Amino acid sequence: MGEGDWYQKSALGNVPAIRHELLAERSSLGKNFIVDKLLSENENLSKPKELLPTEIKNLVNVIGSTTAGDNQYTNSAKPPDPRSPAFHMLSAHLMPLNGKTVLEVQGNFVTNTGAKGKEFKGIFIPSGENGERIKEFFL
User: Fold this and answer.
1) What Rg value do the Cα atoms of the chain yield, rounded?
2) What is the pTM of this model?
3) Sequential pLDDT tens for the chain (139 residues)
4) DSSP string of 64-111, one letter each residue
5) Cα–Cα distance measured from residue 116 to residue 56, given in angstroms and rounded to the nearest whole number
6) Is the N or the C terminus of the chain less surrounded, counting Cβ atoms within 10 Å?
7) Which of 79, 77, 103 lies closest to 92 in space, CA to CA?
8) What is the side-by-side order of every strand in the sheet holding 133-138?
9) Which residue pairs, CB below 8 angstroms and at least 24 apart, start in 31-37?
10) Is residue 91 within 8 Å of 105, Cβ to Cβ?
11) How far apart are CA 56 and CA 73, in angstroms?
12) Residue 96: in which H helix or E strand, if any?
């Protein structure tokens, strides 16, 4: 995937357009008890709740181990190490949305030199009959 390929290009060329839904729903490797526990403990939120670094670490498979999940909380390598994080997380919080608790992540992708790259804002929503799948919507 080349730089900028993670978003759809608008008719204006290199201006990012909203990507309405990830091409495929992320499916869990069986039931994700960590996500279930986090969401069930916070199902009646009335305002956003910032996640702790330990909670962010537990969500790496939900938010993508090679994308937003590869961040400063889950990966301690520093540039120019090629194993350094691909993403710098600015915030991760749970928030109420249409009667459901969802996860919102904001940050930016990082170049191989550690410089700020493309900005990202994503919402991860439980879906399926029992919330066993996660849909990702992002800008």
Assistant:
1) 15
2) 0.72
3) 333 333 333 344 443 333 333 333 344 444 456 677 787 788 888 999 999 999 999 888 888 888 999 999 999 999 889 899 999 999 999 999 888 889 999 999 998 888 999 999 999 888 777 766 788 888 7
4) IIIIITSSTTT----TTSTTS-SEEEEEEEEEEETTEEEEEEEEEEE-
5) 21
6) N
7) 103
8) 26-27, 133-138, 116-127, 100-110, 87-97, 49-50
9) 31/132, 32/61, 32/62, 32/132, 34/58, 34/59, 35/59, 35/62, 35/126, 35/134, 36/131
10) yes
11) 7
12) strand 87-97
36 C-beta neighbours (distance < 10 Å), count: 15
Residue 37 has which token pair? 């526990």
C-alpha–C-alpha distance, residues 44 and 90, integer Å: 24
Output the CA–CA distances (angstroms, integers) from residue 2 to 40, 64, 71, 111, in the order listed: 38, 17, 19, 12
Residue 51 near residue 93 (C-beta atoms within 8 A)? yes
